[in-house]
Design goal:
CATH topology of the largest domain: Pyruvate Kinase, Chain: A, domain 1
CATH class of the largest domain: Alpha Beta
Number of domains: 2
Strand order of the largest sheet: 3-2-1-4-5
Low-confidence stretches: none
Largest sheet: 5 strands, mixed
Strand content: 5-15%
Shape: elongated
Structural class: alpha/beta
Radius of gyration: 29 Å
CATH superfamily of the largest domain: ATP synthase, F1 complex, gamma subunit
Order of helices and strands: HEHEHEHEEH
Length: 285
């Protein structure tokens, strides 16, 4: 058994670690609440645009007009927008999303170019010699304007026929304790949606022109929503990971304290035995 000095040193070390993880848990919890609220608000916006797009698509004869972002063509090249955290300490989240991205790439018949949002995905795919065309970082409190460079690369590349399909790979936020890696195709826009709940509108100047203007906004809203989902997933996973680390540290401190008490008892017992032995030796003379 380690000495009492070593056990005290280990208890101090684990206690200091618990203070750090406890502080990180509180910070992550604060960010998590804000990020989860952003997901809820952003989802309402994204769903409204999606519903409006469905309504417009059903009112426009798509066989007679050209809507560039709805155009389906032979797929030769794809773009993957991979959204990952910049930092670790988020449990299995980073590993799960990176494995999802690699599985999508390896199972695709067509080649992928990668637009990496976040350092973790960039480092992971760089080490596997993937074609990374751009690496971008997003601030911790993203606004839709922060994601426009991502949307512009995707939309312009699709219109210029650099890529025939654009896919998002990110962590979808389900609950505080559940985040799921997800792949979603954003281009070409699919018009095979469920029936819209929006009632009939009169469009000015025309439904066709409104649809032309709406399609890039739809793509931007989907990309922005994926970023919000990714941030909510990251902060939730980190909060849970730090909570588990703090709890584990508390359990370890309890075990070490028990060992310390046992070691002190053994030391006291040994000293008493030495004392008794000494007294017995003196009495025997």
């Amino acid at each position: 058994m380690p000495s009492t000095k070593e056990l005290r040193a280990r208890i101090r070390s684990v206690s200091n670690t618990a203070k750090v993880t406890g502080a990180m848990q509180l910070i992550a919890a604060s960010k998590m609440r804000r990020a989860q609220q952003n997901v809820i608000m952003g989802k309402k916006y994204a769903e409204t645009i999606k519903s409006l797009l469905t309504n417009l698509s059903s009112s426009v004869d798509l066989e007679r007009v050209n809507i560039p972002l709805l155009e389906k063509r032979e797929i030769k090249n794809k773009l993957m927008i991979l959204v990952t955290p910049d930092r670790g300490l988020a449990g299995a989240l980073v590993g799960n999303i990176n494995r999802k991205a690699l599985d999508v790439i390896q199972s695709s018949k067509e080649s992928y170019s990668i637009l990496s949002v976040g350092r973790k995905g960039f480092r992971f795919l760089s080490s596997r010699e993937q074609d990374i065309v751009e690496q971008l970082e997003i601030p911790d409190r993203p606004e839709i304007t922060d994601t426009l460079p991502i949307s512009d690369i995707a939309i312009n590349g699709f219109l210029e026929q650099k890529w025939d399909q654009v896919d998002l790979v990110y962590s979808e936020f389900i609950t505080t304790t559940a985040q799921v890696p997800k792949m979603q195709t954003v281009l070409p826009i699919s018009n095979e949606e469920e029936e819209s709940s929006i009632s009939d509108y009169i469009y000015e100047p025309s439904d066709y022109e409104v649809l032309i203007e709406l399609t890039p906004k739809y793509v931007r809203s989907q990309i922005y929503q994926s970023i919000l989902e990714a941030f909510a997933s990251e902060h939730s996973a980190r909060m849970v990971a730090m909570q588990n680390a703090t709890d584990n540290a508390g359990e370890l401190i309890g075990e070490l304290t028990l060992d310390l008490n046992k070691a002190r008892q053994e030391t006291i017992t040994a000293e008493l035995l030495d004392l008794i032995g000494g007294i017995a030796a003196l009495e025997g003379k």
